[in-house]
Amino acid sequence: MHISSANFIKSASKLAECPPADFQEFALVGRSNVGKSTLINMITQRKWLAKSSVTPGKTQLLNYFLINQNWYLVDLPGYGYAKYSKEQRIQWMDTMQEYLSQRDTLRKVFVLIDGSISPQKIDMDFLTIFAQEKIPYDIIITKTDKCNQKELHKNLTALKEQIEETLGGLPNIIQTSSIKWRGRNEILDYIENLLN
Question: I need a labelling partner for 185 at 20 to 30 A (CA). Which of 28, 71, 128, 179 fits?
């Protein structure tokens, strides 16, 4: 898929504020600071489209990007960052759950997981919820360039074993590197197939 246009449309704090459901949507979710903004910029080849932050947990809204005038990429709030109050975290989780369970045009959720570290319990907790709620998801591994191949293999093997043991089967898993643009074409080809 060629990206001819990519534009930020709006941010929404709740489902009612989302754009009209005119296009299919592909959402990105993951632990705070997993690299969602960096991935969006890599996918779209727009260096500053999504604003990266050194502050984990900065994304608190549903951020909509219209791609090629015919589908949305949606950046969801990061989970698992404890700096904010319990009430704020509950509100974000409620918003995310409402969006994931009720947005009719949501086609697929890509759960981003940091490949440079060992599997995190909070990631497994969210994958379990997605499976239980029958929310269609796949996994994108980020930061594969932040560790050596031996560490990456060890982390991915452990992740796959935990997923199979907990959920009984593996989703599609795409490895990415924002530095080497690894995985970009695979993600876009995958989305293109789902759109057709």
Answer: 128
